[in-house]
Specification:
Blueprint lengths: L19 H29 L2 E2 L5 E4 L3 E4 L4 E4 L7 E4 L20 E5 L1 H4 L9 H9 L3 E5 L5 H14 L4 E7 L3 H4 L4 H4 E4 L2 E4 L13 H7 L1 H12 L13 H12 L12 H31 L4 H9 L7 E3 L8 E3 L2 H18 L4 H24 L12 H13 L3 E7 L2 H4 L18 H13 L3 E4 L1 H6 L14 H16 L21 H5 L14 E6 L2 E7 L6 E6 L7 E4 L3 E7 L6 E7 L3 E9 L2 E6 L14 H13 L3 E7 L4 E8 L10 H7 L3 H8 L13 E4 L4 E4 L11 E5 L2 E5 L4
Parallel strand pairs: 1-4, 6-7, 6-8, 8-13, 13-14
Antiparallel strand pairs: 2-3, 4-5, 9-10, 11-12, 15-16, 16-19, 17-20, 18-19, 20-21, 21-22, 23-24, 25-26, 27-28
Helix pairs in contact: 1-8, 3-18, 4-14, 9-16, 10-11, 10-13, 11-12, 20-22, 21-22
């Protein structure tokens, strides 16, 4: 047998090699990276003291551009300035949560941008927090970085709707608010990972990934890397959404020189008025000439009576008119009744030819245009001369003031200057060539003036901050330090203790109102129905909203007095030896009551309303309550001037089968009217024509209002301005054109 083959010892198969060592190595590398990143983050965190130099908790808002994230916190530090802590409340504003309710005259809302927000100071060092300490009142900090005037107003509206606020402090930051008023924040800033960046510099697209917000918002090391990468990138020296030092200087210089181009530098009113007087005559004559031509074409022959009616329609009581072209010339006296009849016939002829006579249509349009120009010219005469230069923010301030007034809140406007305006020495921290910023003070002056003009309190904070220097502003930055915030808070508290300025009414006519009708308008308007007026020998005329009741002397029955139950701002009463005259504006639904007195009786005039239509009537006569007319030198003087200038006559026209002729008894002041005011009689006592223009408010001789008075355009007279803080010396303060005027007795 052969020997068995040798055997090979059995070895188990080699197991597959495991990647443990590589995993350990990879894990070690990753751990090292994490530790390295954490150490790097820690180094930069400690270097930055856990702070960032910009707010990084914004969220996008479609209306305001940005809002602050409710509940957000961060540490803030800029350059070598102290590190501060920022806390955002549940409402998305800095500081403690806003109270849900507060007494209406207690809470203060402060709005503004990063200066009000308090960038660079702690929560308890902001102006709002220190104002609360000084006043003992709850103060809401509504300041948000990046906001401008439009956003301030939006915050005011939002908070006034949400809670009771007694005072709004509106802080205008000179550094950018004058540029940002007309450009909303939605066009200026975009939110990028919690940061607010200029719209021009924002990326067009953003790549999202898990942890991106944490990396971009919280990592100090990553922020340092981004700064390193972007510091060398070219950046525009000035963006479209930003302002610049030179822009402010230019705006200030323009404001300083604004008086030369003031909007109220009107041309000579007298020359313009003379031009319009002639234009009125020409326009009226063009209409009348067309009516004569149309009538002649229709009849085929001249109608002398028609021609006389055309002339009568533009006549005055007492005028003697003749039919000069007639074969047998006649004369006729223009009485109020004849004039009104002629006006009515003329209007009927015009209405009948409307749409059929292009020449007449053009003449009527010209007539209307000239009348509109005359009315605008009249209103210009009652617009007070305004030699101030309005701020570019005046419209915004007025809007905020009206918003506050609607919610029973008062407004305080603070004009906040730049640090280099407060102290030119601040230029040193910017390492920039100093620029003379003094012209920019005009912007602050105009802002304060505009705020006062609309009735708001206001002050320029330059003096308060100048007194706090040195140390009122951060190093290398324009924001205020805690010391500067304190100085501003003290100035605001002091301003709140002062009485607010008087808010003057806005010049012009209230909506739906018109100016007092002229003598020609009263004369040329047909009478309206007032029950009992004919028996009382009273003429009743209504022009637009104005009712005029003129009760004439008749035989031995002499008018002695008129006593309106509620004499209003533009109620006019004139009692002369020839007539008693009442002019009062009618407002739908508002009843009017006036006592008319004669030497032999007294009657009550009432104006009620049915379905929007005035119903007017004289009551039954009763025994005379005022049997004699009180002596009134002004009424007598006005009567004499009317007789001299207007030369109104009391005439009758006699007619028999052979002739017609007028008979006049001399001059009268039956149709005189006007306001017996101090200003008119003091200025024009010896000039009858000017006196009539003044008391009738036609703008030809407007009264010169004394200090504290304003012109009321409806009657063209001066009244004392008033408000709650500036009560009337006599009479009642009634609302008028956004302000108030003193009334209670006929002017």
């Amino acid at each position: 047998m052969s020997a068995p083959p040798p055997t090979t010892p059995h070895r188990p198969p080699t197991p597959p090699r495991r990647p443990t060592r590589w995993l350990r190595r990879l894990g070690a590398v990753l751990a090292g990276l994490v530790v390295g990143l954490l150490l790097t983050e820690a180094v930069f965190w400690f270097r930055d003291d856990g702070a960032f130099p910009h707010v990084n908790f914004y969220r996008a808002d479609p209306d305001l551009g940005v809002r602050l994230r409710p509940g957000a916190t961060m540490r803030f530090r800029f350059r070598d300035n102290p590190t501060t802590d920022i806390h955002v409340n549940a409402q998305g504003y800095r500081g403690a949560d806003f109270p849900e309710t507060a007494p209406a005259d207690d809470a203060i809302l402060v709005v503004g941008d990063s200066q009000v927000f308090g960038l660079g100071v702690n929560d308890d060092e902001t102006m709002a927090a220190q104002l609360a300490e000084l006043t003992g009142r709850p103060v809401l900090n509504g300041g948000v970085p990046t906001y401008g005037p439009a956003e301030y107003e939006a915050v005011v509206r939002e908070q006034l709707l949400a809670r009771a606020v007694g005072t709004v402090v509106y802080v205008v930051n000179m550094s950018n608010d004058f540029f940002e008023d007309t450009r909303p924040n939605t066009e200026r800033h975009v939110v990028w990972d919690g940061w607010a960046v200029r719209a021009e510099l924002a990326p067009e697209t953003v790549t999202t990934f898990p942890g991106r917000e944490l990396l971009y918002r919280r990592s100090h090391a990553f922020y340092a890397l981004r700064r390193l990468l972007h510091d060398d990138a070219p950046r525009p020296t000035q963006l479209d959404s930003e302002g610049h030092w030179q822009d402010l200087v230019g705006l200030g210089a323009t404001a300083e020189n604004g008086d030369d181009d003031a909007p109220n530098a009107d041309p000579d009113l007298r020359v313009e008025r003379l031009r319009l007087d002639q234009a009125t005559v020409d326009a009226d004559e063009a209409v009348d000439e067309r009516l004569r031509a149309a009538e002649l074409a229709q009849r085929g022959a001249r109608d002398d009576r028609f021609y006389l009616d055309v002339d009568l329609a533009r006549g005055h009581p007492g005028d003697i008119l003749g039919e000069e072209a007639a074969e047998e010339a006649r004369e006729i006296a223009a009485t109020a009744a004849l004039i009104r009849r002629a006006v009515r016939r003329r209007a009927e002829l015009i209405d009948a030819r409307r749409g059929e006579d292009p020449v007449l249509e053009r003449a009527l349009r010209t007539q209307d245009q000239v009348r509109d120009q005359r009315e605008r010219l009249r209103l210009r005469a009652f617009t007070p001369a305004d030699d101030r230069v309005p701020s570019t923010l005046e419209a915004r301030i007025r809007s905020v003031q009206e918003l506050c007034a609607a919610h029973d809140a008062e407004l305080l406007v603070v004009a906040l200057p730049l640090d280099v305006v407060v102290d030119p020495g601040e230029w040193a921290k910017y390492e920039a060539e100093p620029i003379d910023m003094e012209p920019t003070r005009a912007l602050l002056t105009d802002l304060v003036g505009s705020a006062h003009h609309v009735g708001a309190r206001a002050f320029d904070a330059t003096g308060a901050l100048r007194a706090a220097e040195p140390g009122a502003f951060l190093d290398g930055d324009l924001h205020m330090t805690a010391k500067g915030q304190r100085a501003l808070a003290e100035a605001v508290a002091a301003a709140l203790d002062e009485a607010p300025p008087l808010r003057a009414p806005i010049p012009g006519l209230p909506e739906g109102r018109s100016a007092l009708p002229t003598f020609d308008e009263w004369t040329a308007t047909p009478e309206v129905t007032v029950r009992g007026s004919s028996a009382a020998h009273c003429e009743t005329v209504k022009v637009r909203e104005w009712l005029r009741v003129t009760c004439l002397r008749h035989g031995r029955s002499l008018p002695t007095a008129i006593a309106p139950a509620e004499p209003g701002l533009d109620t006019l009463v004139l009692v002369t030896a020839d007539a008693a005259d009442l002019i009062v504006p009618l407002a739908a639904g508002h009843e009017v009551r006036a006592e008319f007195h004669w030497s032999d009786r007294s009657q009550t005039l009432t104006v009620g309303w049915e379905d929007g239509t005035p119903v007017m009537a004289f009551g039954a006569a009763r025994p005379a309550e005022v049997p004699t007319r009180a002596s009134d030198e002004r009424a007598d003087r006005l009567c004499a001037c009317h007789q001299e200038v207007v030369a109104e006559k009391v005439c009758r026209n006699h007619l028999d089968r052979y002739a017609e002729w007028p008979e006049c008894e001399g001059t009268t002041c039956q149709h005189a009217f006007g306001a017996l005011t101090d200003e008119c009689f003091a200025a024009h006592a010896d000039d009858c024509e000017a006196l009539l223009h003044c008391v009738q408010g036609d703008g030809r001789a407007p009264p010169e209002c004394a200090a504290g008075e304003v012109p009321v355009a409806t009657v063209g007279q001066c009244f004392a301005a008033c408000d709650d803080a500036h009560p009337c010396a006599s009479g009642d303060c009634i609302p008028w054109q956004g302000g108030g005027v003193c009334a209670g007795a006929t002017p």
